[in-house]
Amino acid sequence: MNELTINLNSRSKKPLYEQIYDYIKSDIQTGRIPYGEKLPSTRALSRHLEVSRSTVELAYEQLLSEGYIESAPYRGFFVAQIDELYQLKKEEQTAVKKVEKKRKFKYDFTPNGVDLNSFPYNVWRKLSKDILIDDKTELFRTGDPQGEYGFRCALSNYLYQARGVNCSPDQIVIGAGSDYILMLLSMILGRKHMIAFEDPTYKQAYRVIHTIGYETVPVMMDQYGMMVSELEKSGADIAYVTPSHQYPTGIVMPIKRRMELLKWAYAKEGRYIIEDDYDSEFRYKGKPIPALQGYDAQDKVIYLGTFSKSIAPAIRLSYMVLPETLVEQYRIRGSFVNSTVSKVDQLIVQRFIEEGYYERHLNKSRALYKNRHDVLMEALKPLEDICEISGEHAGVHILLTFENSWKEQELIEKAEKEDIRVYGLSDYRIREADNEKATILLGYANMKEEKIKEAVEILNRLWR
Amino acid sequence: MNELTINLNSRSKKPLYEQIYDYIKSDIQTGRIPYGEKLPSTRALSRHLEVSRSTVELAYEQLLSEGYIESAPYRGFFVAQIDELYQLKKEEQTAVKKVEKKRKFKYDFTPNGVDLNSFPYNVWRKLSKDILIDDKTELFRTGDPQGEYGFRCALSNYLYQARGVNCSPDQIVIGAGSDYILMLLSMILGRKHMIAFEDPTYKQAYRVIHTIGYETVPVMMDQYGMMVSELEKSGADIAYVTPSHQYPTGIVMPIKRRMELLKWAYAKEGRYIIEDDYDSEFRYKGKPIPALQGYDAQDKVIYLGTFSKSIAPAIRLSYMVLPETLVEQYRIRGSFVNSTVSKVDQLIVQRFIEEGYYERHLNKSRALYKNRHDVLMEALKPLEDICEISGEHAGVHILLTFENSWKEQELIEKAEKEDIRVYGLSDYRIREADNEKATILLGYANMKEEKIKEAVEILNRLWR
């Protein structure tokens, strides 16, 4: 081939070399220029098209680097052999069906609510601003995979004082949310474990662990929490528990059961307890219940915590405290994984803790939630003859257990018709329970006091 | 027991009820008050200690909720039976050995460098400030697990224009870093796959996938990248490739090999190609090489990208583009996992792209890196008789391949003695290669021009 006629548009935004490249590429793709064909020399083509030689060279180089043409020394450029050239994917996408939007209820007793009106926006903005001014390049370099050391120091102090958790900063690993922390933990532990869950349980953790591919087993609970005798029988070597405030039943695991659980872990090499301390901050009566981790004398408890509940869901900041025995394992199997939390966010939360804002925020939230809790308990008094209330004095939801004649689904549907969303305990069950009494969860964190009163009044009428 | 003598300190910061609680708890823990012992009634103890009855009630309630005592209706409070009470973990931690600090070199040719002096701090600060003012509670609510929709729209536009990637926002999943994206992808794909890697390869991805627990297999490369004939023999059903700019060799996979690779994927149900497009932004000659994803007509390519290289390592923001066939799988197995990136960060990067800052930043970085690239290439001219240079014109490192008489380790050690850090290709190999020619990587992104010249001058002297 000696000539290639290309209509160049010198007024186009597209550079000339790119127009030449596009033209030749398209001709090769459609087969108009066949395999083996020699292209005109750069000199000839540049003369023919009346462009500079370097323009043509640039086009040929691009075709070369993408493999459409090949160069033979002293002979020139030839169209390369391409077995089968698939068409470029069509630009138009068939519109993907949108996921259906969740119905919005007038009254929503979600147990996962967080009140964000009390969020300290001004403090957050100020800290964020200060941090972005203070630092420069250091702030945007790769951080410590485990989390910034200063932040881990602040956190280990806080955990000791507030939760009785004993740890050094070296045992703490920071991550973007509790789901991620479980994924990272699975890399550290390896896959050959059977993990026992309380039943009912925190389904989100259960789903993550299940989907990662672990064998899981539900273990029955009594009034004190997970039954250690059943745990022993289950064959599991890791127990996932929420001892300070069982989710969703609200049971506080008493000291006796805690000791039994630790004893179970001590009895066999390789057993571990995962303590998820997800909402211990909210207790409205007396002191917070200390963490199980603080009682562990043989390095068997993996402690999980999060700021998503206590600050805001969009703060993607959770952490785990590894027992010493697993720190070494983390160094080998997990420490090469880059941190998932930006340094900026870590620094904001560090100062938030160190400068006392976190404590103030917690106290404020606790007072707010306590008030809603009290309003709800008061409003529920007329229902005391048809259901039993449990799980009060802590967390952000309570449970109503009904007599046998009631069906959970019926209670929920009746409420829905009046634009009230309530939640059934069966959603939190791993195994379906027969003959279980209908149990409804009412969360109050994100509901105004007036709305609580209104909604409960309607429920009292509906459920009778 | 009728009396308990407790020395209360009314001037202590600790509330009186907590002092009573601490005292009784400690007595139970040490066995001074044995199992079954009846505690004094709240009325008796309050009179005895001269405190209000509610103070004692509060202390008892706390002991009750933690399970140290039990209440028997009409009879009073009794010490609970606790099999074995483990001591609280000792407060003092044996100091954990600090991880040894990495040596700092005067000249460091790291291939993972990023120049942060050109980072647009002011823009970042401004966007961050604007976003925190604009929004209120919405910003701190739980976000879309897949990533904010607006951000995904901006990203899909960018990917189409800049990389020839065809996708709708529904195919994009945002995550905090490429390591996390691979962890999430593994949940979507399930564990029953054998994953082929180019050898040498991007070791970080290899380690993550290996540690997750996948069977992996290294596949030989020729001058065009991964050999499809070898891939076919390997038995793998997923191929992890870097076609636009192979890491670390810098090979651009030509169109013929790309088609062969796609053909391999089309040949069997369930085969996939993972295209890691980690640094396609940096090409100093001609146009960027389009992504393989754009050629895929049968939904077989999973496209991975990141902002950590192109903006800053501490920006924990990567993404994957799933083929339609895997979007449904994601809905089932991955969409319940909460997003790992805060909304604030997503919004900052969205505006960064939409308002043209990203393009400007890329152009600035590209010009900066090109200059360093050119300086390095010029400085290396005197070494051309002892080694061959490859991988130039793109990315942020080049390779020097030496004649047989040289040993890689020797070259590295000689450099280290003069405070110069260079990197050996063998670090990137999965399988050890026999008789391989010594190959050194020189990264230049984070090295000032003067330093490049100085260091190469020393190397030229050393390596002769």
What does it look like?
2 copies of one chain form a homodimer. In chain A, helix 7 links the parallel strand 5 and strand 6. In chain A, helix 1 packs across helix 3, helix 6 packs parallel to helix 7 and helix 6 crosses helix 10. About 2% of the residues of chain A have low confidence. Chain A has 3 domains: 67 residues, Arc Repressor Mutant, subunit A (Orthogonal Bundle), CATH 1.10.10.10; 110 residues, Alpha-Beta Complex (Aspartate Aminotransferase, domain 1), CATH 3.90.1150.10; 238 residues, Type I PLP-dependent aspartate aminotransferase-like (Major domain) (Aspartate Aminotransferase, domain 2, 3-Layer(aba) Sandwich). Chain A has 464 residues and is of the alpha/beta class. At the A-B interface, helix 1, helix 3, helix 4, helix 6 and helix 7 of A face helix 1, helix 3, helix 4, helix 6 and helix 7 of B.
What tags apply to this protein structure?
homodimer; 464 residues; Arc Repressor Mutant, subunit A; Aspartate Aminotransferase, domain 1; Aspartate Aminotransferase, domain 2; 3 domains; seven-stranded mixed beta sheet; 14% strand
Q: Main β-sheet of chain A: number of strands, strand sense, barrel status?
A: 7 strands, mixed
Largest interface in this structure = A-B, 108 and 108 residues
What average pLDDT do the residues of chain A reach? 89
Number of domains of chain A: 3
Oligomer class: homodimer
CATH topological fold name of the largest domain in chain A: Aspartate Aminotransferase, domain 2
Second CATH tier, the architecture of the largest domain in chain A:
3-Layer(aba) Sandwich
Number of helices of chain A: 14
Helical content of chain A stands at: 25-40%
Structural class of chain A: alpha/beta
Looking at the structure, what is the overall shape of chain A? Answer: elongated
Unreliable stretches of chain A (pLDDT < 50, length at least 5) are 88-98
CATH domain class name of the largest domain in chain A:
Alpha Beta
Radius of gyration of chain A: 31 Å
Beginning-to-end CA distance, first to last residue of chain A = 90 Å
